[in-house]
Amino acid sequence: MSEQRPKPSFFTRAMIPIVTSRAGASFFRKVMHRIDVPLLRLTRGRFSFASSYPVLLLTTTGAKSGKERTIPLLYVQRGESVAVIGTRFGSTKHPGWYHNLRARPEAKVTIKGKSMVCSAREAEGDERVEIWNEATQIYSGDRLPADQVAVLEADPALLWVAVRRDILDGDSRVLVRDRGLKGLSGRFEAPGIFRVLIRSGTNIFGEGAAVLMRRDAAMAVGGFDGRRGYVIDLDLWIRLLLDGPAFALDDTLAVFRVSAGQWSVSLARHQARQVRELFAELRARPEVSVGRFDAAVGWLRAGITAWMRRLAYLVIRLRR
């Protein structure tokens, strides 16, 4: 969504391509906390490697060792609570502190030199989706694609812009290049686009990383709805299309990372059913005219795509 974000410092911008590389992620996963912990303590939270972003110190008790472990983490403020996300620099495994909190939820959090005792719990459902969306908004920094912004600024009627993306595994290796859009280019709108969409049997527009939308427009149609987790993004794209036009930018400007432990993998078994349900509801709308043959093609493709994706996830698990 297009909104104000903390502007990364020059140092942070310079570090982004290093940290997000395979070698950089591996290095910082092992080394960064050894530097950041004393640095944050010394400066009372005023400086760290992620100096432009909110960083806390999380102290947990080892699930096996029983010893205290402290690690710096980026966080999202949620009222009087804070949320942290266990990405482990894009690794396919959960970080150690995640396992520690699962075994012993009591922990200590230190923010800007002030410590507090807290009890951790794992976010689920709508709350999990909201936290993830807030985190991606905060930590995308100034890397908001200028081409997508330019398209929205040039046409105030457009509600969102989609681009192609590369699919990466948990070690940042490219699995698929230039994925998405099914040949779409330029402006498109409802109801004409719905025949292409339903016939595809999948989300041709991509995940949230591939779409830049107007925040007000998204809020006006209800935002993300977590009732169907696997198609949560596609459901919103459809509701936005019912409210106004969109644009397909024929360029690869995004990446989507898949790993054995991520949320979408655990939901993969629901993919075909949720896609079919969503498209059946869309087809039932009076303004949408999609024939039975196209609907049947989409129904079959939804099943085939789901099995292919589950097979891909199985391969990823075996490569761990």
Describe it for me?
The protein has helices spanning 10-19, 22-42, 96-103, 125-139, 146-154, 192-200, 215-220, 232-241, 263-266, 271-283, 292-318; strands at 55-61, 68-74, 76-78, 81-83, 106-111, 114-119, 160-168, 174-179, 186-188, 211-213, 246-257. α6 crosses α11 and α10 runs antiparallel to α11 (292-318). It folds into 2 domains: 10-128, Pnp Oxidase, Chain A, CATH 2.30.110; 145-318, Alpha-Beta Complex (Spore Coat Polysaccharide Biosynthesis Protein SpsA, Chain A), CATH 3.90.550.10. The model is unreliable at 1-8 (pLDDT under 50). Helix content is 41%, strand content 20%. The protein is of the alpha+beta class and 320 residues long. Strands 7, 8, 9, 10 and 11 form a 5-stranded mixed β-sheet that branches. A 4-stranded antiparallel β-sheet has the order 2-1-5-6. The protein has a two-stranded antiparallel sheet with strand order 3-4. It is globular. The two termini are 33 Å apart. A hairpin with a 6-residue loop joins β1 and β2.
Record the SSE blueprint.
Elements: H1 10-19, H2 22-42, E1 55-61, E2 68-74, E3 76-78, E4 81-83, H3 96-103, E5 106-111, E6 114-119, H4 125-139, H5 146-154, E7 160-168, E8 174-179, E9 186-188, H6 192-200, E10 211-213, H7 215-220, H8 232-241, E11 246-257, H9 263-266, H10 271-283, H11 292-318
Parallel strand pairs: 7-11
Antiparallel strand pairs: 1-2, 1-5, 3-4, 5-6, 7-8, 7-10, 9-11
